[in-house]
Design goal:
- This protein has 8 helices and 7 strands.
- It has 208 residues and is of the alpha+beta class.
- A 7-stranded antiparallel β-sheet has the order 2-1-5-6-7-4-3.
- It is globular, with a radius of gyration of 20 Å.
Length: 208
Amino acid sequence: MYKPKKPLTSPEMLQQMLGEMHPSQVNKIIDHVDKHIAAWLERTTFVAIASTNAKGHMDVSPKGDPAGFIKVLDPKTIAIPDRIGNKRGDTFFNVLENPRIGMFCVVPRRKEVVRINGAAEIVRDDNLLDLTTLNGHRPDLVLLLRVEEAFFHCGKSMIRSSMWQPDKWGSIEGLPTYAEALKDHGDMDMPLEDIEARMAYNESDRLY
Protein backbone atom coordinates (compact mmCIF):
# COMPACT_ATOMS: atom_id res chain seq x y z
CA MET A 1 0.00 0.00 0.00
CA TYR A 2 1.31 3.43 -0.96
CA LYS A 3 2.54 5.55 1.96
CA PRO A 4 2.53 9.34 1.43
CA LYS A 5 5.74 11.22 2.13
CA LYS A 6 4.33 14.74 2.55
CA PRO A 7 0.81 14.53 4.02
CA LEU A 8 -1.13 17.62 5.09
CA THR A 9 -2.33 17.07 8.63
CA SER A 10 -3.97 20.28 9.81
CA PRO A 11 -6.44 22.93 8.58
CA GLU A 12 -3.71 25.53 9.02
CA MET A 13 -1.33 23.70 6.70
CA LEU A 14 -4.06 23.30 4.11
CA GLN A 15 -5.12 26.95 4.25
CA GLN A 16 -1.52 28.03 3.84
CA MET A 17 -1.25 25.93 0.70
CA LEU A 18 -4.56 27.15 -0.72
CA GLY A 19 -3.98 30.81 0.01
CA GLU A 20 -6.56 33.44 0.86
CA MET A 21 -10.08 32.86 -0.42
CA HIS A 22 -11.82 35.65 -2.31
CA PRO A 23 -14.81 36.98 -0.31
CA SER A 24 -17.16 36.19 -3.21
CA GLN A 25 -16.49 32.47 -2.76
CA VAL A 26 -17.95 32.71 0.73
CA ASN A 27 -20.68 35.22 0.01
CA LYS A 28 -22.00 33.33 -3.04
CA ILE A 29 -23.42 30.54 -0.86
CA ILE A 30 -27.14 31.00 -0.22
CA ASP A 31 -29.48 28.93 1.95
CA HIS A 32 -32.40 28.58 -0.43
CA VAL A 33 -33.44 28.18 -4.06
CA ASP A 34 -33.60 31.62 -5.68
CA LYS A 35 -34.47 32.46 -9.30
CA HIS A 36 -30.96 31.61 -10.54
CA ILE A 37 -30.75 28.23 -8.82
CA ALA A 38 -34.34 27.44 -9.86
CA ALA A 39 -33.58 28.23 -13.50
CA TRP A 40 -30.56 25.93 -13.37
CA LEU A 41 -32.51 23.09 -11.79
CA GLU A 42 -35.18 23.38 -14.48
CA ARG A 43 -32.49 22.65 -17.12
CA THR A 44 -30.54 20.03 -15.14
CA THR A 45 -30.39 16.55 -16.70
CA PHE A 46 -27.78 14.88 -14.49
CA VAL A 47 -26.93 14.97 -10.78
CA ALA A 48 -24.45 13.15 -8.56
CA ILE A 49 -25.59 12.66 -4.97
CA ALA A 50 -23.09 12.07 -2.16
CA SER A 51 -24.27 10.42 1.05
CA THR A 52 -22.73 8.80 4.14
CA ASN A 53 -24.02 6.15 6.50
CA ALA A 54 -23.72 6.17 10.29
CA LYS A 55 -20.29 4.52 10.11
CA GLY A 56 -18.96 7.17 7.73
CA HIS A 57 -18.95 4.92 4.66
CA MET A 58 -19.37 7.09 1.58
CA ASP A 59 -21.34 6.72 -1.65
CA VAL A 60 -21.82 8.89 -4.72
CA SER A 61 -24.75 7.90 -6.93
CA PRO A 62 -25.73 9.32 -10.34
CA LYS A 63 -29.27 10.22 -11.37
CA GLY A 64 -30.33 11.42 -14.80
CA ASP A 65 -33.54 12.33 -16.60
CA PRO A 66 -34.86 14.84 -19.11
CA ALA A 67 -34.68 18.48 -18.02
CA GLY A 68 -37.32 19.32 -15.45
CA PHE A 69 -37.11 16.12 -13.43
CA ILE A 70 -35.95 18.00 -10.33
CA LYS A 71 -38.98 19.75 -8.83
CA VAL A 72 -38.65 22.91 -6.78
CA LEU A 73 -41.46 22.68 -4.22
CA ASP A 74 -40.57 25.88 -2.38
CA PRO A 75 -37.43 27.97 -1.76
CA LYS A 76 -36.16 25.46 0.80
CA THR A 77 -37.30 22.16 -0.71
CA ILE A 78 -36.58 20.19 -3.88
CA ALA A 79 -37.81 16.74 -4.91
CA ILE A 80 -35.86 14.16 -6.93
CA PRO A 81 -37.67 11.02 -8.19
CA ASP A 82 -36.20 7.56 -7.98
CA ARG A 83 -36.32 5.65 -11.27
CA ILE A 84 -36.11 1.92 -11.85
CA GLY A 85 -32.58 0.76 -11.19
CA ASN A 86 -30.33 -1.86 -9.65
CA LYS A 87 -32.28 -2.15 -6.38
CA ARG A 88 -29.19 -1.33 -4.32
CA GLY A 89 -30.68 1.82 -2.78
CA ASP A 90 -27.29 3.05 -1.55
CA THR A 91 -28.37 6.68 -1.16
CA PHE A 92 -31.65 5.75 0.50
CA PHE A 93 -30.11 3.39 3.06
CA ASN A 94 -27.51 6.03 3.89
CA VAL A 95 -30.15 8.75 4.31
CA LEU A 96 -32.04 6.55 6.79
CA GLU A 97 -28.90 6.53 8.95
CA ASN A 98 -27.57 9.99 8.14
CA PRO A 99 -29.77 12.52 6.31
CA ARG A 100 -26.87 14.77 5.25
CA ILE A 101 -26.29 14.76 1.49
CA GLY A 102 -24.49 16.84 -1.09
CA MET A 103 -25.10 17.00 -4.81
CA PHE A 104 -23.99 18.74 -7.96
CA CYS A 105 -26.24 19.46 -10.90
CA VAL A 106 -25.12 19.43 -14.53
CA VAL A 107 -26.71 21.24 -17.48
CA PRO A 108 -25.47 20.00 -20.87
CA ARG A 109 -23.16 22.44 -22.69
CA ARG A 110 -22.69 24.63 -19.61
CA LYS A 111 -19.26 24.65 -18.00
CA GLU A 112 -20.45 25.48 -14.50
CA VAL A 113 -22.30 23.25 -12.05
CA VAL A 114 -24.62 24.05 -9.15
CA ARG A 115 -23.85 22.48 -5.79
CA ILE A 116 -26.55 21.90 -3.17
CA ASN A 117 -26.15 20.57 0.37
CA GLY A 118 -28.75 19.81 2.99
CA ALA A 119 -30.80 17.20 4.82
CA ALA A 120 -32.78 14.58 2.93
CA GLU A 121 -35.67 12.24 3.63
CA ILE A 122 -37.42 9.53 1.63
CA VAL A 123 -41.12 10.10 0.94
CA ARG A 124 -44.03 8.41 -0.83
CA ASP A 125 -46.48 11.34 -0.95
CA ASP A 126 -48.98 10.69 -3.74
CA ASN A 127 -48.87 14.28 -4.97
CA LEU A 128 -45.07 14.10 -5.39
CA LEU A 129 -45.18 10.69 -7.06
CA ASP A 130 -47.75 12.08 -9.50
CA LEU A 131 -45.72 15.25 -10.02
CA THR A 132 -42.61 13.28 -10.96
CA THR A 133 -44.30 10.70 -13.18
CA LEU A 134 -42.55 10.45 -16.55
CA ASN A 135 -43.65 8.62 -19.71
CA GLY A 136 -46.52 7.15 -17.75
CA HIS A 137 -44.17 5.63 -15.17
CA ARG A 138 -44.81 6.70 -11.58
CA PRO A 139 -41.84 6.42 -9.23
CA ASP A 140 -42.15 4.47 -5.99
CA LEU A 141 -40.01 6.90 -3.98
CA VAL A 142 -38.97 10.54 -3.99
CA LEU A 143 -35.90 12.00 -2.31
CA LEU A 144 -36.85 15.25 -0.58
CA LEU A 145 -33.98 17.65 0.06
CA ARG A 146 -34.16 20.55 2.51
CA VAL A 147 -31.76 23.09 1.03
CA GLU A 148 -29.19 24.55 3.41
CA GLU A 149 -26.49 25.58 0.95
CA ALA A 150 -26.78 26.31 -2.77
CA PHE A 151 -24.18 27.89 -4.98
CA PHE A 152 -22.64 28.00 -8.45
CA HIS A 153 -19.24 26.37 -8.99
CA CYS A 154 -16.99 27.75 -11.74
CA GLY A 155 -16.41 25.87 -15.00
CA LYS A 156 -12.69 25.12 -14.76
CA SER A 157 -13.19 21.39 -14.16
CA MET A 158 -15.45 21.02 -17.20
CA ILE A 159 -13.02 23.03 -19.31
CA ARG A 160 -10.06 20.91 -18.23
CA SER A 161 -11.97 17.68 -18.90
CA SER A 162 -13.20 18.80 -22.37
CA MET A 163 -16.56 17.43 -21.26
CA TRP A 164 -18.55 19.18 -23.98
CA GLN A 165 -15.87 19.11 -26.69
CA PRO A 166 -16.24 15.82 -28.63
CA ASP A 167 -13.29 16.63 -30.87
CA LYS A 168 -11.02 16.42 -27.81
CA TRP A 169 -12.45 13.20 -26.38
CA GLY A 170 -10.09 10.25 -26.10
CA SER A 171 -10.73 6.85 -27.62
CA ILE A 172 -12.86 4.32 -25.73
CA GLU A 173 -11.36 1.42 -27.66
CA GLY A 174 -10.13 -1.30 -25.32
CA LEU A 175 -12.29 -0.27 -22.36
CA PRO A 176 -14.20 -3.14 -20.72
CA THR A 177 -17.92 -3.25 -21.35
CA TYR A 178 -20.25 -3.12 -18.38
CA ALA A 179 -21.10 -6.76 -19.06
CA GLU A 180 -17.43 -7.80 -19.01
CA ALA A 181 -16.82 -6.05 -15.71
CA LEU A 182 -20.04 -7.40 -14.23
CA LYS A 183 -19.19 -10.96 -15.23
CA ASP A 184 -15.74 -10.81 -13.64
CA HIS A 185 -16.49 -8.68 -10.58
CA GLY A 186 -19.83 -10.38 -9.91
CA ASP A 187 -18.41 -13.87 -10.51
CA MET A 188 -21.25 -14.68 -12.91
CA ASP A 189 -21.44 -18.08 -14.62
CA MET A 190 -23.74 -16.75 -17.34
CA PRO A 191 -22.17 -16.52 -20.82
CA LEU A 192 -20.91 -13.05 -21.68
CA GLU A 193 -23.24 -12.86 -24.70
CA ASP A 194 -26.26 -13.37 -22.45
CA ILE A 195 -25.09 -10.69 -20.04
CA GLU A 196 -24.53 -8.29 -22.95
CA ALA A 197 -28.08 -8.98 -24.17
CA ARG A 198 -29.47 -8.40 -20.70
CA MET A 199 -27.61 -5.08 -20.42
CA ALA A 200 -28.91 -3.99 -23.83
CA TYR A 201 -32.45 -4.80 -22.77
CA ASN A 202 -31.94 -2.97 -19.50
CA GLU A 203 -30.90 0.19 -21.36
CA SER A 204 -33.63 0.03 -24.00
CA ASP A 205 -36.68 -1.30 -22.15
CA ARG A 206 -36.06 -0.66 -18.44
CA LEU A 207 -35.32 3.05 -18.22
CA TYR A 208 -38.69 3.73 -16.56
